[in-house]
Automatic annotation (TrEMBL), chain A:
Any single Pfam family the record assigns to this protein: Transket_pyr
Family annotation (InterPro entries): THDP-binding, Transketo_C/PFOR_II, Transketolase-like_Pyr-bd, Transketolase_C
SMART domains in the cross-refs: Transket_pyr
All residue ranges annotated as the Transketolase-like pyrimidine-binding domain in the record: 4-179
Domain of life according to the entry: Bacteria
Cofactor(s) the record lists: thiamine diphosphate
Entry's Gene Ontology molecular function annotations: oxidoreductase activity
CDD domains named in the record: TPP_PYR_E1-PDHc-beta_like
Protein name per UniProt: Alpha-ketoacid dehydrogenase subunit beta
Organism: Ornithinibacillus caprae
Keywords, sorted A to Z: Oxidoreductase, Thiamine pyrophosphate
């Protein structure tokens, strides 16, 4: 099977939908001739034209609300939010409008929209262009939240997100854009709410999201050399969360490390850890649940500080080893 | 006898119906006010008594397929866009027969099928939604227009400026109707904005800004007609500033310390319903008797609405988690 990059997979998912469904369109800043800040929409305006690959002014609140209003009246917009940090400016429309409209209106009307947005650090863009704020939106009933870690997952999850009749926040990790995997040329859908076991193992479960899936897999390879057998679970979607997959894995291994790039305090790892602690998997735990996340500071500029801010492979290895030492 | 100059779309019969509709709106809100005071409706509510001409006058020009977005002070907009008083009252009573099955309340009444995209609890929150609705019309080549109601306070929100700019650059079929009722909660507009007319803000976005007497039905209908024609011709949005006044406080807890009784009385003399009645009578469309009859009919509509709401079922706890997702 051919390999394409995560970035190409995202573009392909959008293009394939736009070829068959005229209601699907993209709006966002610099997505036309420029091709988007990271090149995701490169070439799309040539195929679909400026009406459907719609360049907007720098107006995150305005364009988010425009997407919501168009979704409510029959379109299926994809809002390209240039950096996920900018969701702060679009928050009223996403949280107070998109997420609540169906419920507030007693089940009438729906808001089928996708907010695609690049998140994460590692690019030297510092504090206002590197955050991982996904926990904010997971807190809001009415929204779905997706975080693909591979090109294959990105394509299938994005199709599912576009097909979904609810607002979906779709986080793309900047450092993953250039990573490749086998991706079918035909369209396919990965259901939202279905975790993926990225590596099977029996000693420790690592629940990891986005870029941390890859660091967890790297850590697992290192640990395997020492005879430690790690299972890596990628939830892929935070809302809805495949609780069963996590509970099953933790019940099997009895140990779990939850790792994400977002700041540990109040991060989604706290939700996953709590969910495990409240579940029947608790009875199987032989060590306390361990969380790894970013340090409680803004993302720093200096490359070494930036690296130290978020979990790296050695941190994951260390966490697993410490956990195994306990029991 | 004076001749009434109104848009072609407004038939003689429509004029009479509009007069009754204004009373339906007025009586609906008076009833809501009464029931809140008695504790028979809970939560909060924002009344637009005194502002009926902008709701009724603007929506008089709309067809079923046209859309509106409304505000926290939106009962009048909803009724004028075709909502029935019984389902609205049922919503305020928190009943399953209400527009939102008792889950939205006063600030979230919507009727998407009838083109009412919803009241909104966030000041200026509905403005980008209206632009999105207009974008759908543009992209799907549909002929409907979207009217976006908001208050004077909303023009200081970023969403207002972003959305108006978007509608202007894309020449979208949307009509921005700013009901300037002189106060954003307690803040006088003249202390919060350094221009005499909010309509001048339209100039910054390259669209027409029209100042209208918001208590004059005839003027409201005529300026709206112009704006809708412009929108349907594909020439883009218009900003209409309707100068008006809310007779009641911001919400039920308001003691109105920020304004004087004299000012209130002065505006009550400019009652938009009385004024429309006089216009209709002078033009020979209405007699005193007919006017009284219509007023009585309107009162009956609200009495029936209360009865409908009161007899409607309450939601059950099973409804708590329904409709969070589609």
């Amino acid at each position: 099977m051919r390999e394409i990059t995560y970035l190409e997979a995202v573009r392909e998912a959008m293009s394939q939908e736009m070829r068959v469904n005229n209601d699907v369109f993209i709006l966002g800043e610099d997505i036309g001739v420029y091709g988007g800040a990271f090149g995701v929409t490169s070439g799309m305006i040539e195929e679909f034209g400026p009406e459907r690959v719609r360049d907007t002014p720098i107006s995150e609140a305005g364009i988010a609300g425009t997407a919501v209003g168009s979704a409510l009246t029959g379109m299926r917009p994809i809002l390209d939010l240039q950096f996920s940090d900018f969701i702060t400016i679009a928050m009223d429309q996403i949280v107070n409008q998109a997420a609540k409209i169906r419920y507030m209106y007693g089940g009438k009307g729906m808001v089928p929209m996708v907010v695609r947005t690049p998140s994460g650090s590692g690019t030297g863009a510092a504090a206002q262009h590197s955050q991982s704020l996904e926990a904010w939106v997971t807190h809001i009933p009415g929204l779905k939240v997706v975080q693909p870690s591979t090109a294959y997952d990105a394509k299938g999850l994005l199709k599912a997100a576009i097909d979904d009749d609810n607002p979906v926040i779709f986080y793309e990790h900047k450092l993953l854009y250039k990573t490749s995997s086998h991706v079918p040329e035909d369209t396919y859908s990965i259901p939202l709410g279905k975790a993926d076991v990225k590596r099977e193992g029996s000693d420790v479960t690592i629940v990891a999201t986005a870029i941390m899936v890859h660091r967890a897999l790297e850590a697992a390879m290192e640990l395997a050399k020492e005879g430690i057998d790690v299972e890596v679970i990628d939830p892929r979607t935070l809302v809805p969360l495949d609780e069963e997959a996590i509970i099953t894995s933790v019940s099997k291994t009895g140990r779990v490390v939850v790792v994400h790039e977002a700041v540990k305090r109040g991060g989604y790892g706290a939700e996953i850890a709590s969910m495990i602690a409240e579940s029947e998997a608790f009875d199987y735990l032989v060590a306390p649940i361990k969380r790894l996340g970013a340090a409680p500071s803004p993302v720093p500029y200096h490359p070494e500080l930036e690296k130290a801010h978020v979990p790296q492979v050695p941190n994951i290895i260390q966490a697993v080893k410490e956990m195994l030492k306990r029991a | 006898m004076d001749r009434l100059i109104v848009p072609d779309k407004i038939t003689d019969n429509k004029l009479i119906n509009l007069y009754k509709q204004m009373w339906v709106i007025r009586f609906f809100e008076e009833k809501v006010d009464e029931y809140f005071a008695k504790g028979m409706i809970h939560g909060t509510t924002h009344l637009a008594i005194g502002q009926e001409a902008s709701a009724a006058g603007v929506c008089a020009l709309l067809d079923v397929e046209d859309k509106i977005t409304s505000t926290h002070r939106g009962h009048g907009h909803c009724i004028a866009k075709g909502a029935t008083a019984d389902k609205m009252m049922a919503e305020l009573f928190g009943r399953t027969t209400g527009y939102c099955k008792g889950k939205g309340g006063s600030m979230h009444i919507a009727d998407v099928d009838m083109g009412n995209l919803g009241a909104n609890g966030i000041v200026a929150g509905g403005i980008p939604l209206a632009v999105g609705s207009a974008l759908t019309a543009h992209m799907k080549k549909l002929n409907y227009v979207t009217v976006c109601f908001f208050g004077d306070g909303a023009t200081n929100e970023g969403s207002f400026h972003e959305a108006v700019n978007l509608a202007s650059i894309w020449k979208l079929p949307v009509i921005f109707v700013c009901e300037n009722n002189q106060y954003g909660m307690s803040s006088p507009v003249k202390e919060m904005v350094n221009v005499d007319n909010l309509a001048t803000r339209a100039q910054a976005y390259g669209i027409p800004g029209v100042v209208a007497d918001g208590n004059d039905m005839i003027e409201m209908m005529n300026v709206t007609d112009e704006a809708i024609k412009r929108a349907r011709r594909g020439e883009g949005p218009t900003f209409i500033e309707a100068k008006t006044y809310r007779w009641k406080g911001h919400s039920k807890s308001d003691t109105k310390k920020y304004r004087t009784l004299e000012e209130e009385k002065e505006w009550m003399r400019k009652d938009p319903i009385k004024r429309f009645k006089n216009d209709l009578m002078k033009a020979g469309f209405l007699t005193k008797e007919k006017a009284e009859k219509l007023q009585e009919e309107a009162k009956k509509v609200i009495e029936d609405a209360v009865k409908f709401a009161d007899e409607s079922p309450m939601p059950t706890l099973d409804d708590l988690l329904t409709d969070v997702y589609a």
